[in-house]
Structures are given as structure tokens and as C-alpha cells.
Amino acid sequence: MEQITSLVQIKGIRDGLLATFSDAPWEDQYLSLLAQIGERPAFFQGARLAIDVGSQILKVNDLVDLRDHLSERNITLWAVISESPTTEHTSQLLGLATRISKPRPQEKTHVDAASDDTALFVNKTLRSGTRIEFPGNIVVMGDVNPGAEIVAEGNVIVWGRVRGMIHAGAKGNRSAFICALDLSANQLRIADEVSAMLKPQKDPKPEIASINSEGRLQAELWHTG
Amino acid sequence: MTAQVITVTSGKGGVGKTTAVANLATALAADGKKVVCMDGDIGLRNLDVIMGLENRIVYDIVDVIEGRCKLKQAMIRDKHYPDLYLIPAAQTRDKNAVSPSDMTRICNDLRPDADFVIIDSPAGIERGFRNAIAPADRVLVVTNPEVSAVRDADRVVGILEAEEKGSPSLILNRLNPTLVRNNDMLSAEDVLDLLGIQLIGIVPEDESVIIGSNRGAPVVTDAKSRAGQAFRNIAKRLQGQEIPFMDLEQQGGLWGAIQKLTGRK
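Output (C-alpha cells, whole complex):
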């Protein structure tokens, strides 16, 4: 028992409790967490819990199951911190935070990945409620539907229709651009510039949005060559 | 028999989930299928009212889960179709009284004795929604041709895809062909273009739906209603039949004129 309970480390942080999972099988750790809660119900009563799952790849069902079990014990799961983009995406779908105020020590490795030529390739349509953040460029093969958000520190290229929100150059890079086959987004941002609403086009043509010489965010037809 | 479990959901409230469940269940029963419908909206139950079975409720789904009655005791037989049953939600409890595994267990108990189990999901994407989709073999997403309803439907489709429930089918409810023609309403093409899922039926706006709901007699039992016809067609498609989509524009042409003469709307 002692060995099992030590699989998950629980400590207090500013925003509540943080449970740190190791790389052991998810099922074991999950049971270990519930066992620890079972031993000290009064301590956990009404707690806000964040979990750091390391590189575990978790499906919606895993997190939903955990969240339901926690809520039965009157504990709110509010954040999931993960190194796995799949798990982060899952957490975002469930409306859970993926950052807590105290940065992870490993965050450095993310920044290293953000050189000019790294890109995240997203091979599907982004539906409402999906948020994708990446410290480099983002390429989407599919549409960006209303209610979806893309935040990139570099450029954003969408091979499809953009009707959600896109923020390129999110850390202040004013030379970032956004291009798409149909750029009828309800809002575009580059660095700290925010565009007005773009009109849906009758006959959409590929467009590129960037900050022009007057410092305004502007979309224009994408000329080849 | 092994029942197919179908969950009807939407994200946004008030788009016609419960109406769709009552009508599809009734239409399937009218086609001779054995159907059980379940109200997943614990705490805000409606399906019993729409089906006109409110005063027959003795036990509900929470009684089954908490062991106060057998599953059969909570199954209320419909007034007209002997092979149509309703398992009502509890009105005095909340969503936390049921878990996804409870729903899966109850559906597995129902599977051997039914052709279809249809679950009415509550609005939202929280616990009640999770409960409703947990046992589903197939999911129908109901939306209206309104920007807000479509955006919520899109979110739900995204969650269903993430949960590996397969791509859901779409019921577009309360379409008004006149408004669409005047460009005052999203068209079926606009909605499908955005959601990118398979369409299983378009239900035209029809006041007989409201009248039917208030009387506790789902509109599919009204042979003249166009919305009723649309639901009957969806029920046929659920049984695997190929049914062509209705021509919603027929009000305007020669057929509309004949309808006016004969006093039908």
C-alpha cells in the first residue's frame, strides 16, 4: 500500500493542490490518487486540484472518469498540466486549464523548440471550443470554425476556411503573417494589433494578413510568384 | 434482438432534442419496432410531458440506479403503442445522481429486449451530457439554423470525435424555407458546410409540433404535418432505408396553391 500511495505526489500550491503523476501506468496512479484521497477525506474536502501528468497520453474518457470520481468526493479538477499535446488538447476540450500560475521548470524546452522553422501541423478541422497554442508556426489542413482559437508565436497558415480567431506573432512579433484559402475570420490578431471583422466573401480567394507600413493589420489577396 | 442505442444531443438548449426523441421513438414504434426512450435530463425532465405520460410515472431512472425498483418497473408503456416505453428522469435530483457507467449498465440490460434505445441528452457539455453519450452506438446532433445553435453543435461534434464516438448525424430542426429564400436564415448548405457531418433529416418549422407537444401527442402521429413527415423519414433512415429528402420549397409552387385550396398549410 505504501508503495502504491507514493506513486502520486500531492502538494499545496497557491491555487489549491497539485498532484504530480509519474510515468507509471495511468490506472495504478489513478487508483493511488483516489486511495490517498480516501485516507484523508477531510483534507481534500472542497479542494481545487490541478494535476501534472508528465508525458502521459490521456484520452477524454480517462480525464472524464477522473473528474467524475473527484467530483463525487467534492474535489474540483480545474487544471491538467502535460507535456503531451494530445493530453493538452483533451484537457482543453473538457474546458480544463492547461497552465497554472507557477511555470513548470521544464518550460524551457518548449521555448527552445520555438525557432523560426518549427511548425505544428494540424491535420483536421478545428471545431468550436478548440484552442491551439504553439511557440512556433502553425499549419492547419482544414477549417477553423467559429469559436475555435489559434495562438502562434510565429505565422499561421490555414489550408481551408478561417471563421474563428487567429493570433499570430502572439509574443509581439509584428512581422508575423496569417494566410488562408478563405480568410473570413471574425477576428484576426498579429502581435498586439486586432483586426476589425472581415466580411465573408462571396467568391473566396486566398488572402494574406500582415501589418502594413502604416502599422495597421491588413488583409490582401495572396499573389503567387 | 440487440438494440441500437441512439443518443440525441445538441449543446444548446431549446433546439428540439426532446421533441426529436419523442417523435423518432413514436415513429419507430409505429413501424413495429420495440423502442425504449430514456430521459437523460435528471432534474429537468420533459420527455414524459411531450409523450403525454407524466401522470403514469411511479419510478424513475434514479430509483433503478439506487435499487429501489427493477428496471421493468420504471419502464412506462405508451398509451398508443404497446412496444414503446419511456424511462423517465428524476425531477427532484440532479445530474450527479447518475454516472456514465450507470447509463451504460442500464442500456446493456435493455439491449436484448429492444430494437432501439433512444436517449434524450440534456443541454450543455457537462455531466448530464457525458452520461447520455456514454452508452451510445450512434449520436444524432440536433441544431437550428441559427449561428449560436450551430456553434454549440460544432463544439459537441468536436467532443464526440475526441471521445471516438464516430461522426454523428445531423438533424436540422425548425428550418423556415421562406426565411432561407430571403437570406434571413442560414440554409441547410451553410450549416452542413460548417459542421461537415452527415445529414439525416431536415425538419421544417411547423406549429403543429408545438400543438402536439402541448397535447402530449408527438407530431408524427399527425399524418398531415410536414414536420411529422420529416420525423417519419428520419425514423426510416435510422432503420437503414434510403428515403429521399423532402422538397421544402413546395409551398410556393403549384403544389402550394393546391394546398391552399384544400385548406392545408
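Chain B has a mean pLDDT of 91.
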